[in-house]
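fwd from M.: "can u put these together and see what the complex looks like"

so here's what she sent:
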Amino acid sequence: MSFRLLVLVSGSGTNLQALLDAASDDAYGATVVAVGADRDDIEGLARAERTGVPTFVERVGDYPDRDKWDERLAVRIAGHRPDLVVSAGFMKILGPRVLAAFPVVNTHPALLPAFPGAHAVRDALAYGVRVTGCTVHLVDAGVDTGPVIAQEAVPVLEGDDEKSLHERIKTVERALLVEMVGRMAREGWTTTGRTVRLGTTSGRTTK
Ligand code: GRF
């Protein structure tokens, strides 16, 4: 039985596409069983639909508060029985019910703990760093504060703007996300404090 991934998206979904492409090979060891979004009419949902993967949308604005949204999102996710939730460009902070029920991995376009939040690439450029990158990490209740699984550096080039730098980061980010999610599926992982170790084969354990 293949390891079940549920991917959350808010935008263009190129990270989702990289996971869908990788998962089309049985050797990858994981299948994308559903894609969820917090908004309609996005390319991420269209990518899932073209591949025949079920989709759902839960908009925060359709609920009286974020707590009710979290409750409903947890139920929608649970309906697909994922082994791992992947936040791939999902631009909402997940609530306590989702986080208590499923392990969640996020990809972030900066070398955390530098430049957390929604404008990581812009903030890195504004600061004037010469090297930035991407981080794949487990999600906790904070904003981009969970234990780091893997990071890769990307140089800032002369003349870079937010778009050009983000595109170069995303090329590295997609490969890193695909590699790490695949390893988690095939090898399992252990979390001890802030340290995530891949390769336990026994699945998820948290100490
Ligand atoms: C990625 O860089 C992700 O880290 C950031 O938004 C981008 C999403 O890209 N939060 P895509 O929707 O996967 O193309």
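replying to her w this: DSSP finds six helices and ten strands in the chain.
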